[in-house]
Every structure is written in C-alpha cells, then in structure tokens.
Specification:
Oligomer: single chain
Structural class: alpha+beta
Number of strands: 5
Bound molecules: tetrahydrodeoxyuridine
Distance between the termini: 29 Å
Number of helices: 4
Length: about 130
C-alpha cells in the first residue's frame, strides 16, 4: 500500500464530509497493519458539540470490523498548512497504535509527515496487555 493510494482514499472520501456549519471538510484514511484501509469524514450536527471528527469516524469503522492495529493515517483538508488532528483524535489514535504515522495533506498537495508520538508526547495509555 503506497502513500499515494492512502492519500487518494482520503481525498475521495472528503467529498462526503458533512460539514454544513463550519464548511471545513475533512477526509481521513487509516491503514491497518494488515493492509486494510478504512475511511472517515467529519460529521457535524446542529448541536455543535456532537460533531465527530473524520479521524475518529475512520477509527470507529475499523474497530467495528475487528481491526485495532494501525500503521498510518492520512488527514486530508483544504487547509494550508495541512491541518493536523485535534487533541481528542490524537488521544484516540494513541489508544490503538502509539507508534503510527500521521500524514497531513491538503488540496494543494502540501504534505506534512509526523510520528503520532511527536503530536502527542508522553501520551496516556492504560497497560491492558
Ligand atoms: N475536524 C476533524 O474532522 N478532524 C480534526 O482533527 C479537526 C477538526 C472537523 C470537526 C469540524 O467538523 C470541523 O473539522 C471544524 O472544526
């Protein structure tokens, strides 16, 4: 699975973002360690605080499919520089794969690459192993 394919999946799904309030459409594509891809979009609500971010939408789809180990996620926006995941999403990603990569891309083809551990240093995680 190349980054180009993962970026393309995030770009495609961004079209389905439901963001009538902010106008800020986000597409996410998460690559599981077994090679599967799960996509997500932000889902806003008239009760603003109920909004779901694209990253957590993608994680939820993966977990529902029984997949909890991730290699990387692409977050695709029209923002420059490319928007990075919010704090809540960083924590949710950290729960499953503290060692994953985060690739932030925009519609001008700007790409920023991070380790999740850079974006969430000293993250919190209960030891359930
Ligand atoms: N949003 C995401 O989908 N992911 C993030 O990491 C940051 C914010 C969404 C939530 C809301 O629908 C819009 O972007 C503006 O905050």
């Amino acid at each position: 699975m190349s980054d180009v394919e993962l970026i393309d999946a995030a770009r495609q799904v961004q079209k389905n973002a439901y963001a009538p309030f902010s106008g800020f459409k986000v597409g996410a594509a998460i690559l599981a360690k077994d090679g599967q891809i799960f996509t997500g979009v932000n889902v806003e609500n008239s009760s603003y605080g109920l909004t779901i971010c694209a990253e957590r939408c993608a994680v939820g789809k993966a977990v529902a499919a029984g997949i909890i180990k991730f290699a990387k996620i692409v977050v695709y926006t029209n923002d420059s520089p490319p928007a990075t995941p919010c704090g809540a999403c960083r924590q949710v990603l950290y729960e499953f794969s503290p060692d994953m990569q985060v690739i932030c891309v925009n519609n001008q083809n700007e790409i920023k690459r991070y380790e999740l551990s850079q974006l969430l240093p000293e993250g919190f995680r209960l030891n359930i192993d």
